[in-house]
Amino acid sequence: MKPSLRALAVLLMVAAPATAQETLQPPAAFDSITDQTARSAALFEEMGKVLQSPRCLNCHPVTGGPTQGDDMHKHMPPVVRGEADFGAPGMNCSTCHGSENVSFATGPGSIPGHEPWALAPLSMGWQGLSLSDICVQLKDPARNGNRDLEALYKHNATDGLVGWGWEPGEGRTPAPGSQADFAALTRAWIDTGSACPQ
Amino acid sequence: MTTLTVNGKEVTVDLDPDTPLLWVLRDELRLTGTKFGCGVAQCGACTVMLDGMPRRSCITPISTAEGSEVTTIEGMQGPEVTAVQAAWAGIDVPQCGWCQSGQVMSATALLQMVPSPTDEDIDNAMAGNVCRCATYVRIREAIHTAAKTLEG
Ligand code: FES
Ligand code: FES
Prior knowledge:
The complex is a heterodimer.
Chain A: H1 3-15, H2 36-51, H3 54-57, E1 67-68, E2 73-74, E3 87-88, E4 91-92, E5 102-103, E6 110-111, H4 131-139, H5 149-158, H6 160-164, H7 179-191
Antiparallel strand pairs in A: 1-2, 3-4, 5-6
Helix pairs in contact in A: 2-7, 5-7
Chain B: E1 2-6, E2 9-13, H1 21-28, E3 47-50, E4 53-56, E5 69-71, H2 79-90, H3 100-113, H4 119-126, H5 136-151
Parallel strand pairs in B: 1-5
Antiparallel strand pairs in B: 1-2, 3-4, 3-5
Helix pairs in contact in B: 2-3, 2-5, 3-4
């Protein structure tokens, strides 16, 4: 790398340090809320820390293409959603994103990857939505890929691309907690009636 | 050890599995038509075909290319790349030339997928190929010309 570029990279790293990873409270932390519906909504709010983390939001946009980074800036190079949520013909997501995170060979940082790697469908976009709206959308089979609550649990608990949020590679803050914590919250939220926050 | 096919020839390399494919192409196989620019998937100069799809070789660890077919600018064949080459030469698209093998790879891939691309198709497909000499207007014109040639 040229010295000037290296200086720029160092500056960028100093300007945008990866913040420490947030944790998630376990379902038991909500036991003191006696009203079940209120407890359920509170559990969803805890899940919201994940749902609204940049790791999830960046690929759940409501218009255009993805954003990127902890500050959710416009994706560079500019990319579009494309017909299959996979970019434009000639420049699909896989032109750059491979099956795993790849550290840059020439300096700090990494390019994220996973198999598959694609945008969430438009019906599942939730950038800028309130947590309450995200909750309603998430439960709606017409918008959630025809998933019932159990399928939703399975998605949150086991899906690899969801799991990538906690292993995002150098330069990106992982989603709060762990996928197991997120799964436990989802389970508890469903078991308490899957209520949505107001 | 990683074995892959490059321009129709099987090659085996004994390198750190994290070595970028671009390093292998340029430094080991001496296929220097593929260029190094940014090294961070931002410029497109290193574009090759990996199993028939455009791929930035600077962020492709050699381990992930095991068993794959790689085609570099030196090995490109077929009506699309022939039309692109002719259109490029016809209006002298390149200035310094540094970005151009990447541009040709992306343009060829686009025409393979969309035979008559609109300006928007071109902008979307070529958005990841930076030209520091700003030859964008000629690139777009040449892609349209190549598309017309392919229509016959
Ligand atoms: S060198 Fe690979 S995209 Fe710039
Ligand atoms: S022709 Fe000089 S960089 Fe494109």
